[in-house]
Amino acid sequence: MNRRHWLAGALVAVALASSPVQAQTTLRMTWYSDGNEGEVMRDLLNRFEAGNPGIKVVLDTVPFKAINENLPVQLAAGQGPDMARIVDFGGLAKFALDLRPHLANAPNWEQNFGPFLEWMREPGNTTAIPGYMTQLTVTGPLVNKTLFEQAGVAIPGPKATWDDWAKAAKAVADKVKAPYPVAFDRSGHRFFGLAVSQGAKMIGADGLPTPSDEGFRRAAQLIVDWHKSGVMSKELWGSVSGTAYRGANEEFKNAQVPFYLSGSWQIAQFDKTVGNAFDWIAAPTPCGPANCSGMPGGAGVIGIKATKHPAEVAKVMDFLASEPILSEFYARTLFVPGHIGIAKKGVAYRGASAQAAAALKVFGDAVGALDPAAYRIQGNAYSRIVFNAAISRIGQAVAGEITIDDAIKRIDADVAQQVAERNKK
Amino acid sequence: MAGLVLKGIGKSFGPVEVLRGIDLDVADGEFVVFVGPSGCGKSTLLRVIAGLEEVTSGSIRIDGQDVTTERAAERGLAMVFQSYALYPHMSVYRNIAFALENMRLPREEIDARVRRAATMLRLTEYLDRKPGALSGGQRQRVAIGRAVVRDPKIFLFDEPLSNLDAELRVATRKELAGLHAEIGGTMIYVTHDQVEAMTLANRIVVLNKGRIEQVGTPLDLYNRPANLFVAGFIGSPRMNFIRGQVGPEGRLVTPDGKVNLPLPPGSAATGEVTIGIRPEHVAPCSPAEADARIAVELVEQLGSESYLYGTLADGTALTLRSPLEDPARRGEEMPVRFDPARLHLFDAAGLAIRP
Amino acid sequence: MSRVTSLLRQTRRPGRLGWTDILSYGYLALGVVLMFGPVLWLVLSSLKTPAALLEFPPSFLPLTQKTISVPGHARPLELHRVRLPDGSVKELAQVRRIGIQATMIDPADPARPAIRVPIEAREPIREIAFAWSNYTEPLKQFAFGRYFANSLIVTILATIITLLINSMAAYALAIYEFRGKNAALLMVIGTLMIPITIVLVPVFLVVTQLGLNNSLWAVILPGAATPTGVFLLRQYMLTLPRDLIEAARMDKASEWQIYSRIVMPLTLPALAVLAIFSIMWRWNEFLWPLAVLTKSEVYTLQIGLNAFQGELQTQWHYLLAMTVMTLAPVALVFVFLQRFITTGIANTGMK
Amino acid sequence: MSANGSPPRAIPRDSFASRLIEAVAGLADRPMAWIQHAVGGRGMAYVFLAPNILFFGLFVFLPIGINMAMSLTGGTNLFLSERPFVGGDHYRALMQCGSYLDPASCREDHFWKGVSNTLKFTLFQMVAMVGTALVTALVLNRKIRGRGFFRAVYFFPVLLSPVVVALIWKWILQRDGLLNGAITLAGGEKILFFVEPGWAMFWAVFVSVWAHMGFYTLILLAGLQAIPADLYEAAEMDGTKPMRVLTRITLPLLWPNLVVVLVLVLIKAVQTFDEVFVLTGGGPGTATLMVVQYIYETAFANQVQNFGLAAAASMLLGSLLFALTMLQLWIARRKAA
Lengths: 425, 355, 351, 337
Known about the structure:
The complex is a heterotetramer of chains A (425), B (355), C (351) and D (337).
Chain B: E1 4-13, E2 16-26, E3 31-35, H1 42-50, E4 57-62, E5 65-66, E6 77-80, H2 92-102, H3 107-120, H4 136-148, E7 154-158, H5 166-183, E8 186-190, H6 194-200, E9 203-208, E10 211-216, H7 218-223, H8 228-233, E11 240-246, E12 251-253, E13 260-262, E14 272-277, E15 282-284, E16 292-301, E17 306-311, E18 317-322, E19 333-338, E20 344-346
Parallel strand pairs in B: 3-8, 3-9, 6-7, 7-8
Antiparallel strand pairs in B: 1-2, 1-4, 4-5, 9-10, 11-12, 11-14, 12-13, 14-20, 15-19, 16-17, 16-19, 17-18
Helix pairs in contact in B: 2-3, 2-4
Chain C: H1 2-8, H2 19-45, H3 50-53, E1 63-65, E2 67-68, E3 77-83, E4 89-98, E5 101-105, E6 115-118, E7 122-124, E8 126-128, H4 133-141, H5 144-175, H6 181-190, H7 200-209, H8 217-220, H9 227-238, H10 242-250, H11 255-266, H12 268-284, H13 287-292, H14 301-306, H15 316-347
Antiparallel strand pairs in C: 1-8, 2-3, 3-4, 3-7, 4-5, 5-6
Helix pairs in contact in C: 1-2, 4-15, 5-9, 5-12, 10-11, 12-15
Chain D: H1 16-27, H2 29-71, H3 89-95, H4 109-140, H5 147-155, H6 162-173, H7 178-185, H8 197-225, H9 229-237, H10 242-271, H11 274-280, H12 291-301, H13 307-336
């Protein structure tokens, strides 16, 4: 008899564990973290909950992999959270909730998130307010100043070209025996940080992607050539397959990379882990034949259409996107603001060293220098398809498996096939 | 205790017929032994009775009740397996008690019965042991104990002694006989060893190729085998067989004429026959009395008696038993005499020719 | 020659160490290094600071910069071994570094004026320090206890269900003759090779339709019926003597009792092997829980732990430390069940 | 099982586990007795089979059916009802090749590259795995001091999750990893293991052998210990050369275990995904891209989650696996005959 009771107790416990007690309105936000932003968000949400006793927000932190791979499946199945922090705005636009009807001050949102709202909307929609930016990212180079000094090579100036930087970095690397003169994250987004300056437009007149334009070709050729001439190491682009991301942040921290094309998001971490080992700076994006623009990007929180509590979601979003709160968020996470008002005023980054603050300033300025083409590429619903095809195939070309021409043919074919699949109804 | 009636039992495994048309009545309290060469179907028949195999045809009645379609557990029988089938993970006590627990008897009742059986089988001091820690004979007794406590309608034994060494086998045989005398249950016992059959059985059932060849008391089978098979199977060393015919002057003659015997009085035999004579009914004799001569090929001296293996002139093997210690040597020619009263005659179909 | 023969079998000449023995022990010693080394490396790495993790050449032990408090300086200063222009070597504390020049003072005599040293001439002095914060910090941050409990519930319940239903099926397939048996066997064996990865989406659909999302049952149930388990147990049960089952039947045991009282206890070694594999598999499972569990109340440890993998950064120091934490129960299970596992596999009728 | 009634295995006396099983199972005695009463003794076979079949049906066969339906539909919607029927398009796309021997000539070149890599990996891995496991088993089969310890040492990695295994080794093998540290210390040049296709494949095989060898070693060890010692004594009396002892006695008698090991290694190798993926990321280029990785990425990692194409590829892989299983069955039958 006792045994039976025990068993029943265990079953009840399991049942309880799987069906939480519902208190007031509970909203769920699916979240991922690169650094401390999860803690900061939790802190801000606590503040929200204190002011709004009827609403509770649960932060479900997942590996980033789940945001890109599992969340779309869950949303497609009608499952999923009330809000989510995502990066593939175009791909998930159809699941996004239009907050506009529930917002107290929609014009304010439009004013401050205007260009980014376009990224989040479904094609053709010009009014929806799906969410706000937790960070704007912008690609750009990080430079190991100490290595340049040790090598006695001058750091190229503000309007220097890619070629200037490649030569300088190679010279430094040869002198100080750094294995990666130039490092690029293995990421389509970073690749376009180069391609835009080479004149890549990516999008045709009909809004559909046309990856292999002149600028794209030039950029791809540059990447492959740099690998051939030892300016870049195959370790990043050539060592993994498909869409896998590889960053060089660890190598950079280890002082093995004079010139690292990554972006604003590295600053917080470098500030913490490089410490006193060497000096580093952020530099403006080198210039190509077309312009000196990098790529914008970023992550944002969107409301999910399937939510049962749209009004409450809007309330939370309104709170989080409000200027003082968002400003605090950026300040504590060392993110580049994705809020036009805050960007204009500037963010008083907390706990950042002089070095990090300077770097953040460089990236903040870079936002202003972005080419409109770069915004269009980032905002296009198909951009990630092109990004993925690009790194997958250029990676193969870097590894020497296929020629650059074949790679570009494959990219066109891959993109065309995926676009067709997505539009199959 | 109960009787058993088998009617027209047939059993096939796919196309292979293992049992055909078995009819048998076993009386209450009787000890019946099934013997036969391996593959004769004796174990299958036992398993059919147990309910472990379903019959293809025929019916089984226990205690007057038709149990043909009942499962093993419902027939109220107990079985001792050749391998003993003791549960290796249970103590001797639990092994014996297991069936009683399944019958949901009260604890005290179970305990009393187990202890009674253990005392009877001298297992009391081993009750806590696992079967793995017992000797062969002890395991055998546990297996019997497991059957005894159940107080079954019929005990079934499937070659229970075949895994014991010779000495233990004789001892256990006696114990089994004693057990039957003590509890008086109906017992059905399968063996391929005719000594066991002869010593234990009230009645023996000889099986061959799925059929009953003969049913009878041990002496019946020994003295009046119904056919060549039974004659050859019962008795050790086996009965001698000599091909012969009934001659014109009413004598039995071998084709080469070297053996010439009087026909037993009143025998109805004619034509081709097989003459059977057990080794103990052939004896060395003086040349004058000889019915035949054999060339001695092998002499086995057992101390109390000797066996001589030889051949007749036409090459037919002949074995004889002699009370002498050293009756002959290899290669010797020896005159022998047949006891005329102990001749068995079989017709061309192998059936005994009875006066 | 007979010594070579003895390599091929089991006897060793008593009291003598032949070259084959030396070879064998050498091989085994190499094995120990090769098998334990990487895991030890993981454990040591998990105790390194983020900076030390990325160092090259890597140090085996967790080392950090040694610092010293010097009067007149608010923060502790880094200690370096410095080669001075005159060739002598001295331990100095670094006040600041600008570019490739470091400003250093003698901690023993802080009043003396600071000297400037090129950075190549200094070598940091380091000491062993375990970065326990790799463990304590994430424990504060994430609900380790809850994830641990969820993992435990999943692992235990799933293993019990797996053992139960697979052994029942194995019992049916090993002991009975019945119509459809061959079809059932074929089904079991035919799916032996299908990895769950390739049917993830359809299984997700099924689980969603059953309304199991975000319940631990969504993780527990789908993998409970494993062809491997049925196959392994059946093979083992086939080696049990039929007499035992028949004896039990004669002993008036019901079929369920035969299964639970006779066959299950005798199948313990095979059950133990299946249990081990089920435990390992469930404890380590990642892709599937990630697909069906989205609420942090029901996260398993593997999801929680991998949350340190972001889009652009992975917090390796936390990830490694938490990995070591998840390994601990595995190591415990192994230590206690080692004998069972190793002899169990040997006996599971893998023949 | 010996016929003399000895227990089949050494079972601990009234072990806790067996008492627990008994106690828990006792709860079900009565309900099961009623069921048996209702369906009869023979019907119990189906009762015992039922839960497993139910689970199998729900979580294996139904999904396989859905998968098949998915492979015939297109688009990015998840529910079958919302997916347009495209017939054999996905299969045609997968099979569209200039030459099947050259993955680069195929429309879905990564699928074929995956197939060819998987075959390569499987072949190398089988040789390496069986070879190492056999040697280790032979060594462990000797009268070695601390045999239990060594057996455990080799088995230990079997318990680690594939992700952890790959992570550990990646940490060791990367440019700035432990191994290159050691090489540099010894005065050598760093080797970029994950940039050279040959090295990457080598380490992929090495790491999977490292992780799983212990399991197969135990199976082989069990087989070795079942070989009667007097056979070796007889061979020694006959003056048989050691190599002949190995090839004429040990290996033939170990054959059944070797077959099991070969089959299991084969099954696992074809299914390989996370271990290699975490270690090499499928690179360099596509040199270690496995077919399961292709399927996973097509369904999940690509921005357009092409469930149809992935399903078609998995159906193709599934049929290949089924054929392999049947081959295994056939071999097992022949062995039994």
